[in-house]
TrEMBL record:
<dbReference type="InterPro" id="IPR003495">
    <property type="entry name" value="CobW/HypB/UreG_nucleotide-bd"/>
</dbReference>
<dbReference type="Pfam" id="PF02492">
    <property type="entry name" value="cobW"/>
</dbReference>
<dbReference type="InterPro" id="IPR051316">
    <property type="entry name" value="Zinc-reg_GTPase_activator"/>
</dbReference>
<feature type="domain" description="CobW C-terminal">
    <location>
        <begin position="220"/>
        <end position="299"/>
    </location>
</feature>
<dbReference type="InterPro" id="IPR011629">
    <property type="entry name" value="CobW-like_C"/>
</dbReference>
<dbReference type="Pfam" id="PF07683">
    <property type="entry name" value="CobW_C"/>
</dbReference>
<dbReference type="InterPro" id="IPR027417">
    <property type="entry name" value="P-loop_NTPase"/>
</dbReference>
<protein>
    <recommendedName>
        <fullName>CobW C-terminal domain-containing protein</fullName>
    </recommendedName>
</protein>
């Protein structure tokens, strides 16, 4: 390692669709001129956010199809951390899957990576992005979301423009009950002051749980929907609306008659916007916690509207 300073490592967490990638884009702009690395963890089998960042000329390492804190991917996560430690970078940002329970991050860094590579990383802490619009409903049923909040040093309460002051107060009270020591910042579109990059985040008193609640048995399922052809925009939007009650998140790129579109849904909100990104075939990651019934809904709603062949992986 020589005289090189340790790499500053930040963990970015937040449930599906909260705004982690938007925050990461702002961080990249803020650190222009610095050498940075990004380790991106997608829950689905294909990358969507990674494609968007690579379009901006950013080189990243991706670990897909699960959480890097789950036993099924933890080895790949450790290998990636060790590989990054050998590069001449100043910062490393780990964007965790929206379903990740990050309780074991410091254990991994200190007890596993540390034994192999010494003190190559200076862990700055975890920044959690909370979707204020959906947080109260999600926190009641998702243990991983509660762990993300509880283990964070800084919590960005995002999308405050979409809720009233009473709901915002309830959201912040729920967060404070889980993590009274964390720094809270309100934001819309993750427009926050990025001064936290140049100062150490506030320490919290959370008793670290070294074993994550992420296991192959309890996690939601991510299906990849693929199709060839050009699709009617109105019919496709109707298809997405029919699936919203059955899904936690949908995102991807689809070829409609007007051209290629980026798809992003979370909760009961959906966004379809034109993009200049072109893929070999249309692909949509569908994340659901409702098992086979959700799978049946995907097939039935597709067959009602389209004659093109649907491939689900």
């Amino acid at each position: 390692m020589g005289d090189r300073k340790p790499i500053k490592l930040f963990l970015l967490t937040g449930f599906l669709g909260a705004g982690k990638t938007t925050l990461l884009k702002r961080i990249i702009d803020r650190l222009a001129g610095h050498k940075i690395g990004i380790l991106m963890n997608e829950f689905g089998k294909i990358s969507v956010d990674g494609v968007l960042l690579q379009k901006s000329g950013i080189d990243i390492v991706e670990i897909n199809n699960g959480s890097v804190f789950c036993s099924c991917l933890k080895g790949a996560f450790i290998d990636a951390l060790i590989s990054y430690s050998e590069l001449p970078i100043d910062y490393l940002f780990v964007e965790a899957s929206g379903m990740a329970d990050p309780s074991s991050i410091e254990h991994i860094l200190h007890s596993v990576v540390g034994k192999v590579k010494g003190k190559e990383y200076d862990y700055q802490g975890a920044v959690c992005v909370v979707d204020a619009l959906h947080f109260l409903d999600q926190a009641d049923v998702l243990l991983a979301l509660d762990r993300q909040v509880a283990t964070s040093n800084m919590i960005i309460v995002n999308k405050v423009d979409l809720i009233d002051e009473q709901t915002l107060t309830q959201v912040e009270q729920r967060i404070t009950n889980s993590n009274p020591a964390a720094e809270l910042v309100r934001a819309s579109h993750c427009a926050v002051d990025t001064d936290f990059l140049t100062r150490r985040l506030k320490k919290t008193e959370y008793a670290v749980c070294q074993e994550t609640c992420n296991t192959p048995g309890n996690r939601p399922v991510a299906h990849v929907l693929k199709a060839e052809g050009r699709f009617d925009k109105a019919v496709f939007e109707d298809f997405l609306q029919a699936l919203l009650p059955w899904t936690l998140r949908m995102k991807g790129f689809f070829r409609l008659k007007e051209g290629w579109y980026q798809v992003d849904t979370v909760g009961n909100q959906s966004e379809i916007k034109p993009t200049d990104i072109v893929r070999p075939v249309s692909e949509l990651v569908v994340i659901s916690a409702k098992g086979l019934p959700a799978l049946d809904e995907i097939y039935q709603n597709w067959d009602k509207r389209f004659s093109e062949k649907l491939i689900l992986q």
